[in-house]
Automatic annotation (TrEMBL):
UniProt cross-references to InterPro entries, sorted A to Z: DGQHR-contain_dom, DNA_S_mod_DndB
Annotated protein name in UniProt: DNA sulfur modification protein DndB
Lineage of producing organism: Bacteria, Pseudomonadati, Pseudomonadota, Gammaproteobacteria, Pseudomonadales
Organism superkingdom: Bacteria
Gene: dndB
Amino acid sequence: MSTYVHSFPCVRGIQAGRPCYIAMCPMRLVPKIFIFNEENVPADLRAQRTLNLARVPEISAYLLDNRDGYTLSAITASVDGAVHFSPASDTGLEQSIGTLTIPMEAQILINDGQHRRAAIEQAIRENPELGYDNIPVLFFIDEGLNRSQQMFADLNKHAVRPSNSISTLYDHRDQISDLARYLAKNVEVFSRMTELEKSSLSPRSSKLFTLSAIKNASRVLLKKGKGDFIAQNERELAKIFWEEVSLQMPDWIRAKDKELSTSELRDNYIHAHGVMLQAMGLVGAELIIRKESEWKNTISQLRHIDWSRANPEWEGRAMVHGRISKATINVALTASLIKKKLGVPLSTVERELENRFSQQ
């Protein structure tokens, strides 16, 4: 074995008959020992996808902005070299606890976690103290390109991105997510009929809204971007706005009171879908800058709108070929029709959009 080695306290285990080792690695070593230099290698000769450079600054900023509260999952890597495990004891549980020694000349290739590696390197340059933190690393013995490619495929095959709704439910750093949770709890019609985990509703769901739809609509309503601060008076304004909207939607109230099934509402009306909620956010953004009595009077006209999917006015706006569409252009066209129904002047951009729509 080489005179020069990396040594890690670790736990030894077995997966699929192969030894593996989980170790805690100081972050300052991550850029030095983990190799990722395959950008110019053809895909079929690589064991990883190419680095998505847009993701790296996001992860790095997350580490720097949450110095006392970040969480990073383990990196998975393969060691192309002779490793040595020294158990703490020859008997009992301590047979699996010990020190993993890896020659410095051994190649250590990342199977999963190359973006974390690049982000750690970037973050340490800005805040060297991060280098004294640790990240767990799962080491396997390298068995060649085919095995490494299969490991990558297996590690990512069953990975499922969480829904926007459950991410909103659990994200306590994002102020827009916090606002969405507040509204889902405190606006009566939302509190009774909001799906908190899924971002889409099944045909038989008893819910009418999703938490992610409330979040997106409220972000538009308050004209907020990612990371923007939301003041208490803005939270209350959003609550008042959505309460007022719900008062002008008798069908929502009937569904809340179990007098009308939500599935029937979704099948027959566009105001039971996220496209309408987000469109109302756009409309509301232009209304809530007015006096409260004035915009509430305008909102009262919502109850006179025909929200039926059979209404041909919604085709090409909230619907495309009879199917609900939440595409940005459809949300904007839905909002402009609602504005016209309420007597709210269209912006220059909206007028141009309407002109193009009428010429189709």
